[in-house]
Write a structure and sequence with these properties.
This protein is mostly helical. It contains 2 helices and no strands. The radius of gyration is 14 Å and the shape is globular. The termini are far apart. The mean pLDDT is about 85.
Length: about 80
């Protein structure tokens, strides 16, 4: 808890305990993995789902690639909820 003394490399964020928003882990990996992690919210009666694609240190092209993959591979299933 609290501020990290040093930011881990981008690929290591997923391994830092409690680093996700509100303690929820980051959904990182291939589209299938992210979709499976997000499916935990399917029956939670949510009205909003907030997603962050740009972690500190990420290159802009990697962010755009992640956003395109999300829109193509994951968003259609979430929209059907």
């Amino acid at each position: 808890s609290g501020v990290l003394e040093q930011l881990p490399p981008v690929g290591q964020f997923r391994n830092v305990a409690g680093i996700g928003h509100g303690g929820a882990p980051f959904a990182v990996g291939p589209s299938e993995t992210v979709a499976e992690m997000l499916s935990a919210y399917h029956d939670k009666r949510l009205t909003h789902l907030v997603l962050t694609f740009h972690a500190p240190g990420m290159a802009s092209e990697a962010v755009r690639r992640s956003m395109r993959a999300f829109a193509r591979d994951i968003m259609p299933a979430i929209a059907a909820w």
